[in-house]
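Record 1 of the preview.
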Amino acid sequence: MNNFAPLETNLANPALVSDAKYDILLVENNYVIQRIVLMILTECGHSIELAEDGILGLDAFKDRALQNKPFDVIFMKVSMLLMDGMEAVQCIRAYEMQYELSPTPIIAFLGYSTIADRELWHQAGIDYILTHPIRPVDLLDAISRVITEAGVVL
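->
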């Protein structure tokens, strides 16, 4: 017997599911994590665009900015090939400053985190940090927190 509630039970909790539907960029190179996050967020009605590394994530971010259709939230994995999450976040924040864009809330995925790691990520422009394992309640709570703090209005 396991101690995990089924996904449906977690998402059926009205405190976790909001009427607001967000446009989210998921920058993640692990197929299993991609599927888990996509399943949770699409089941809640959010629209997700997937980028498999920091370069593709940065390109997706810039494309949306140029179309004047920015993402509401970005989920960014820390450790990736080609361009890691730290560099991608720094590039996103620099682009926002250069073009005077409102900062997009960014949530980082970390395998583990120390207090020093968290401080480093916050200084780089991360708004919220999630560590593994990824649980539906944590994903949805993180979105709610960063959206509220950023004052995003749909």
